[in-house]
Each structure stands twice: as structure tokens, then as C-alpha cells.
Amino acid sequence: MAGRILIVDPVATNRIILKVKLSAARYDICLASGFSEALITSAAQAPDLIIVGLSASDASASDAGAKCIQQIKGADLFSAIPVVAIASGASNLARLAILKAGAEDVLTRPVDDAFLLARLRSLLRARDATEELRLRDGTNKALGFEEGPTPFEPPANVAIVASDLTQATAWRRALQAQTGHKVEVWSPEETLEQNAANSGPDALILAVDGAGRPGSALTILPELRSRRGSRHAAVLAVLTVENPAAAVMALDLGASDVMTAGFDAAELALRLGVQVQRKRDADRLRTSVRDGLKMAMTDPLTGLFNRRYALPHLGRIAARAKSLNRGFAVMIADLDRFKSVNDTYGHSGGDDVLIEVSRLLQDNLRGVDLVARLGGEEFLIAMPDTTLDKARIAGERLCRIVRETPVLLKDGRTKVGVTMSIGIAMGPGLDIHGRAPQDVDVEALLDAADKALYLSKSEGRDQVTVSRTAA
């Protein structure tokens, strides 16, 4: 399934129609008619996203719509779950009130199906990053390395990107009256030049006046997402004309948020604040992974997490998998005949090989995956929310990449070819009766993966073996 979505709507017809549409897109759907039922359903189903249907009276009366969203977002169970409101009609005042109450977006019926699906995909991607941040923070706290309070954050650097610079200048004046951020105006060409020269702004606001016109703000979005200076920036697309296809394209190309109803300074300022904070949270995650607890929690040679960090974090992955009724994969990877590398090229050459293999593993796994060096030439990989087939494919890909990438030693001349064997064990998801496991024994999983690794070695090396229990 693409994710689990809770639909909360007092109108049964609305719930059923939306369930049919989203089920066809492979989402796992659960339903509730009101707040109390939503609490009960969420405790059992753990949704990734919530869609709230607001009645006409809720949508037209800003207080009623906002109170409905506040009630949902105020519950501890829902506080970290993105919420999309669907209204039968909503004034600008009502939209702002609903957004301020905590909704990620307010859509108006009838909702364009393609845009709704694109919006859900975008929000679920952002939720994955947020969940990983919470998971990392939880592991750090459990180990006694909780970070101090976040210091005062300066105003964000924001760039409005538009072909019509006169229009963009007017937007800049209106936006600066609503926010304390530093706002500049760039043409699409200037944006690419700026992001090639420096680290880029915290947020980019794209004025979208057409879908795919060469040189437009929208067409540079893939380029921005591919560049080091701007790939992590928040990107908000503002459609100057109604164009559902352009909105879908913007989200699927990597826009963080889309305003489909044109420029509104107050609403843009509100959305910008949310996206800037989300960007800063994501920056904190990357900094935490790269630098936080570096001396205590990482292997000084490879920069990977070490055993001290990896085992508690694996326990948290297992606990989260149990609470969400999802499986996860554990791999033990080991370089083949590594002693001969040390004997032939010395320990310095062996270190070069370990450093390069570690880089290959990190570069070819998801950001949410855990990669750690257990010791010597042995590595631990944990992949949350992963099926057996996906884990096997990932393991075979890693073996192939290591095999096909000779390591250039520090002398600049010598290349060393190595191979790697992998053993896989699967953390339990639902059983055949749809029940979650009572316990997830991390040590038993590691032992199963280790035995599978032994089979990979004994049957010829340079291959992946799945634990017989998992298979």
C-alpha cells in the first residue's frame, strides 16, 4: 500500500466516494464519522494522513471549521499527522483560519482527482522525513544525548522567482508586510546562477503562469532539486492562473506546497512559515546524522554509525514497525576475503576499501535506512517499511555495485576489486490473520541475518541469502 489514510466526514456518501478513489490508487483507507470514532480508529490503525470533510456551514464559518481542525490536531494521537481539509465552500477568511488551526491544505469540492493524489503524495513524502527526525531524536534521547533547546532562528532568506519581475516586485512588497523574512526577486535564469554560486535561499516562491513553458519558473524546478545549493530548499508554487495540470506537475517535480487560487499575501505568509520551519527541521536531521554525536556514535574510519548507536536504533525501528503493523528488513553485509586485501595492500589499503564501500552503501540506500559498521569488514543495514522482495532487490543491487566499483587506493594508481555477501532477515509485520506480533526480538533477527550471511559465504560468496524463516 502507498500509505494509510483516515477519512473523517460526517456524510457517509462523501466517505464512500473518497474511499473508492483512494483505494484505486492503492491507499489503505479507514473511515470515521466524527472525532470520537476517529480517535478509536487511529489508535488501532495508525494512519499516515487524515482527510477531514467539512460541511458547508463549517467551511463558510471560519470559527467552526477551525475548531474542527483544532480538535483533531490538538489530540496527542494526531499532532504529528498531516491533515487535509476538504470543504464544500470556503471564504479566504475561513481558509486562513483552517490553515492556522493546523491543516496542511484546504481543498474545495469538487476536488480535482489528479491534484488530490499529487497533494497526498507530497504530504506523505514530507511526513516520512518528519518521522525519521522523530525516530533519530528518540534514539539520541534514549542514549542520553538529548539536544538542548533550539536557539533563536534568524529570518529566512526567500526568493520570489518569476518571469514577470514587475509582478514579483509587487508580491515582494505585500509579502514583506506580512512576514519578517528577507525577500528577494529573481528571474528563472538568475535563480539557476545564484544556486550554482552559493548555498541558495531557505525558500523559493515560484510564480507559475503556465505548465511547462520553456524558461518558466516551473520548468527549472527539477534543476533546482538536483543542485546541492537548492535541493533542500522549501519550494512554494503559486499559480497565477487556474491550471490543475500545472499544480500536479509542480508537486510531482518536488514543490513543497502549491497555492492553486493565486497570490494572497496572508495565506502565502502562513504557508511559507510552515515550510521554512519544516525545512529547518529537515536541516537539523541532516546535521544530526552527519555531525551529532559523531565521536560517541560513529565509526571514526568510515563515518558510519557504530554498534553502540545501531542496536538501540534498530530496537526503535522494530518498535515502530510493530505499532504500525509493518515489516522491516535487517541485513548483515560482509566483505569477502578481506584478510587478503590487508595482506596484499596493507592495513592502509584495507582502510581505503572500507571507506569507499561505506560510501557506496550510504549513497545507494534511502535516507530513512540505517547503515552501521559493526566491526572489521561487517556492516548492519536496517530498512524500515520494506517487504521481502524489496529487501532482496536492494541487497542484490548493493552486491552488484560493490562488485562493479573497484576501489582506487590513496596512491592514485592501484585499484582493488572486492565483493560482498549479504544475509537478510525480516522483522515481522502482520501475520496471516492480520494480527501484529506480540514481540520483536532484535537479537534473534540479527542472529537469523548472520546465519543467512554464513550461507551466502558457504555457497560461493558475492550473493544475497534470505533467512529461511523470512523466506
Short description:
With 471 residues, this protein is an alpha/beta fold.
Features:
alpha/beta; five-stranded parallel sheet; globular; 471 residues; Alpha-Beta Plaits; Rossmann fold; six-stranded mixed sheet
Describe this structure in words.
The structure is a single chain. Mean pLDDT is 86; it is low at 430-436. This protein has 3 domains: 4-111, Rossmann fold, CATH 3.40.50.2300; 157-290, Response regulator (Rossmann fold, 3-Layer(aba) Sandwich); 294-466, Reverse transcriptase/Diguanylate cyclase domain (Alpha-Beta Plaits). By secondary structure, the protein is an alpha/beta fold. The chain is globular. The two termini are 21 Å apart. The chain contains 16 helices and 18 strands. It has a 6-stranded mixed beta sheet with strand order 11-13-14-12-17-18, with helices on both faces. Strands 2-1-3-4-5 form a 5-stranded parallel beta sheet, sandwiched between helices.
Q: In CATH terms, what is the fold-level topology of the largest domain?
A: Alpha-Beta Plaits
Radius of gyration: 25 Å
Distance between the termini: 21 Å
**Distinct helical segment count:** 16
Low-confidence stretches at least 5 residues in length (pLDDT < 50)?
A: 430-436
**Total number of strands:** 18
Work out the strand percent.
Answer: 15-25%
Oligomeric nature of the chains: single chain
Summing up helix and strand content along with how strands pair, one would put the structural category as alpha/beta
CATH architecture of the largest domain: 2-Layer Sandwich
Assign a percent range to the helix content. 40-55%
Mean pLDDT: 86
Give, in spatial order, the strands making up the sheet with the most strands. 11-13-14-12-17-18
What is the top-level CATH class of the largest domain? Alpha Beta
